[in-house]
Amino acid sequence: MSPIEPQKALVGKTAIVTGSSRGIGAGIAIELGRRGANVVINYTSPRGATAAQQVVKTLESGGSKVASVQANVAVVSDLQKLVDAALSISENKKIDILIHNAGSGDDCYLADMTEDFYKKQSDINLKAPIFLTHLCLPHLAQGGRIILLTSVSARLGVPQQTVYAATKAALESCCKVWATELGRKHGVTVNCVAPGPVATDMWWDSDPALLADFQPIIDSTPAAARVGEVADIVPVVLFLCSEESRWVTGSVLSASGGMTFIG
Ligand SMILES: NC(=O)c1ccc[n+]([C@@H]2O[C@H](COP(=O)([O-])OP(=O)(O)OC[C@H]3O[C@@H](n4cnc5c(N)ncnc54)[C@H](OP(=O)(O)O)[C@@H]3O)[C@@H](O)[C@H]2O)c1
């Protein structure tokens, strides 16, 4: 039997990538398509609508089926739209790959914390992955993959990241619970990819004080003294989508140039 071309290993699979109009999510979506998957693209803002069109064009030109969905992941009723879109493009009415990528990276010192800030950020970063996974459960394919984008911030202790760091740490806990709770029952693996700083809008829109607080950590990053690129993160996520990752579950893969060795 001839081996499947790695480039086409995901033919017939259907993926949802939240927050896939820009940044890391767009990179993941395009690579999933390049490997043959059908993909649900998600955005929430008018800016995202324009960016999403470009991602859709790229995927369609490669032959993937694509659904582009405006949905605010913080709103549970919007999450059903993502599930419905996935089922509409899935040949076997199953969802094979679920990538929880949409995130809010807003910065806030504890002294300035408000209930509104807490709710807004934690609804996007934590509530959304919990309820979207819940909605996908009846439709998950055997051999399915759930991947959560977390962050080295979960354990670095950088100022202004109270809610951001806490929600990312919470996702890493969810990952371990779901690996056990869903693993055998649904035949899925559940893993996290934890990037360090990556050159996307989220990073460059950060408070200058946060960028300054991160600089010494960047300067001492073991692999290279630089911020990561989307292309550094995408292959790690794609590995976790592959058949070859079948024995990896409940793990947090640091994609940070080794940043997590520090601190
Ligand atoms: N960049 C970094 O330095 C870094 C480091 C570690 C971890 N991460 C994590 O990696 C993931 C992706 O980050 P990124 O840097 O690629 O972000 P980004 O460039 O800011 O892009 C964010 C994406 O999420 C979408 N989004 C935001 N809020 C949403 C909502 N409420 N509902 C639906 N979609 C929403 C955006 O859609 P619109 O275009 O419509 O706004 C956009 O597609 C996040 O989970 C982030 O925490 C990033």
Automatic annotation (TrEMBL):
Top-level taxon in the UniProt lineage: Eukaryota
Gene3D superfamilies (UniProt xref): NAD(P)-binding Rossmann-like Domain
Ketoreductase domain span: 13-196
Keywords: NADP, Oxidoreductase
A GO molecular-function descriptor: oxidoreductase activity, acting on CH-OH group of donors
Pfam family, one: adh_short_C2
Record has Oxidoreductase as a keyword: yes
Family, similarity comment: Belongs to the short-chain dehydrogenases/reductases (SDR) family.
Name this polypeptide is given: NAD(P)-binding protein
Species annotation: Lophium mytilinum
